[in-house]
Write a structure and sequence with these properties.
Elements: H1 14-31, E1 38-40, H2 58-71, E2 76-78, H3 80-88, H4 100-106, E3 110-112, E4 118-120, H5 122-125, H6 134-155, H7 158-181
Parallel strand pairs: 1-2
Antiparallel strand pairs: 2-4, 3-4
């Protein structure tokens, strides 16, 4: 469970920075052999007076529903209502203005799956610049990602295999696009 507040003194573009933070979290989990599934939404959430819980509210309930009913595969699904809010609510933009810089920054983080759902596209957004060793680090990450999929496929039951096949297809499509560019 992650919660990012938008009511702060600085308008740092909370939606864009949440996408960046989620991408980094997914990459770190993959590096540790962990696959994630979740939901990203916008809504009221109570996180306790000290920020340590209890956690409840409409936003948490909706994120849970997305994770349980829509995410299905190892991905973080982005709520369509959250995307609509992002396009219309200036409190979600950097400095209260949606400009071409923010649009270019956010676009690589949002993928569209075959089923039409939006998700955090961590393979596309985690480019060579995200890794200490640049392009070599990016390729090493892709190799770890592939190995994680193959290792899990070897021991998965039928339900888990379907999820891993989705992930393998996502991986393969991304690698094909990279190969075409190179």
């Amino acid at each position: 469970m992650r919660v990012r507040t938008i009511d702060t003194q600085s308008q740092d573009g909370p939606c864009a920075y949440e996408l960046i933070d989620l991408m980094h979290a997914i990459v770190e989990c993959v590096n540790r052999g962990i696959l994630l599934r979740g939901g990203m939404t916008i809504g009221p959430v109570y996180i306790g007076s000290n920020g340590k819980g209890p956690i409840f509210g409409d936003g948490m309930v909706r994120a849970y529903e997305i994770e349980e009913e829509e995410a299905v595969y190892p991905r973080i699904v982005i709520d369509e209502e959250a995307l609509a809010a992002y396009l219309s609510d200036e409190t979600l933009w950097r400095d209260g203005a949606f400009d071409t810089y923010e649009a270019r920054m956010v676009r690589p983080f949002i993928g569209v799956a075959d089923d039409g759902s939006y998700f955090v596209d961590y393979l596309r957004s985690a480019g060579p610049g995200e890794f200490d060793s640049g392009l070599a680090g990016h390729f090493e990450f892709l190799k770890r990602h592939r190995k994680l999929i193959l290792d899990n496929l070897a021991t998965a039951d039928a339900k888990a295999k379907r999820k891993l096949v989705w992930l393998a297809n996502y991986h393969d499509r991304f690698v094909e696009r990279v190969a075409e560019r190179l």
